[in-house]
Amino acid sequence: MFDTMTLTKIVGGFCGALLVFLLGAWAAEGIYHVGGGHGDEEQAYSIEVPETGGEEVEEEEGPTFEEAFEVADAGAGERVFGKCRACHQLEDGANAVGPYLYGVVGREIGVADGYSAYSGALSEQADVWTPENLNAFLEDPRGWAPGTSMSFNGLPSVEERANLIAYLDQTDG
Predict the structure, then answer these.
(1) Which GO terms describe its molecular function (predicted)?
(2) Which of 32, 95, 133, 143 fits as disulfide partner to 115, beta carbons 3.0 to 4.6 Å?
């Protein structure tokens, strides 16, 4: 059924169709863009947009971290910790990809028994993991400590951060 001549005809037909398509595209480009390069001409029709008057829209700000931390729910923080569980453990000394988080609130930055993969960028920012330092770090890890090896993008919600820090704070009693 298929011999060499039939296969040659099929391949030749595809090549011919491709050649016709390329020549058609080249001809259309020449017809529609006679004047030279793209975008050299003036725009034929402009829509004028009135200025807004410089009024600034106030963004509705949520609670501050201090306000959110005062009413933080450790139970909700346990659910938020699910995002951290891939790289961190809560058991004392149980390091994973990241250091263990047992007793992290109040612990010296860059110090976890048995964990030596710290990048050094963290200890340049502060000395102790206070709730405020943890909040700033968890909001944008690479923004707070440029060069950190933590690849997490951060928690944008101040309530989630406050709940997580409250949960981490109660793990060591």
Answers:
(1) electron transfer activity; heme binding; metal ion binding
(2) 95
Helix or strand run (H / E) with residue 32:
helix 4-32
Question: Do residues 121 and 146 touch, judged by C-beta distance below 8 A?
Answer: yes
What's the pLDDT tens digit per position in 1-38?
678 899 999 999 999 999 999 999 999 888 877 655 55
Residue 162: inside a domain: yes
Q: Is 37 a member of any domain?
A: no
Q: Which residues pair with 128 in a beta bridge?
A: 108
Contact 48, 56 (CB under 8 A): no
pLDDT digit string (tens) for 54-111?
A: 566 555 677 888 888 888 888 898 898 888 888 888 888 888 888 888 888 888 888 8
Please tell me the pTM assigned to this model: 0.63
Q: Which two tokens stand for residue 85?
A: 């569980």
Domain around 151: 65-170
E runs forming strands in the chain? none
Helix (H, G, I), strand (E, B) or coil at 33: coil
